[in-house]
Amino acid sequence: MKKFIHALVLAVFGFGCWFTWGILTLAPHVRRADPALPAFTTFCISLRPVVVALPLLAAAYCVWVWFRKADRVPSWIGFFAATTGALVLVTLPAMVAAYLPLLSAVNNLASK
């Protein structure tokens, strides 16, 4: 059962990282009059490979858990806490980075 829950946590974490990667991919495509992106948005977009590497590290850990002996499988709670914490620390700045160009576009619409 612990191995199945590890797989479930990995699937949800992978989906969350994919969603975050998609947000960072779409952020520069917001229509704006000013072609320059905010510096924080550019910085976060440059960190997209980190969002890809996190699920790969989690998958490597899950493979390690799945091939261990059944009597020594670690608890899934620590894995859940680590993936949730990593997802929050990555997604929150990504949401802010995606919001900044949108805010700029709305401000430019209001000034026209």
Short description:
It is built from four helices and no strands.
What's the SSE pattern? HHHH
Radius of gyration: 18 Å
Individual helix count: 4
Helix content: over 70%
Q: How far apart are the first and last residues' alpha carbons, in Å? A: 59 Å
Report low-confidence residues grouped into runs of 5 or more. Answer: none
Proportion in β-strands:
under 5%
The average pLDDT score comes to: 88
**Gross geometry:** elongated
Describe the structure.
By secondary structure, the protein is an all-alpha fold. The chain contains four helices and no strands. The protein has helices at residues 2-26, 39-46, 48-66, 76-111. Helix 1 (2-26) runs antiparallel to helix 3. The protein is elongated, with a radius of gyration of 18 Å. 21% of the residues are buried.
Give the key terms.
112 residues; mainly alpha; 4 helices; 0% strand
Topology of helices and strands:
Blueprint: H1 2-26, H2 39-46, H3 48-66, H4 76-111
Helix pairs in contact: 1-3, 1-4, 2-4
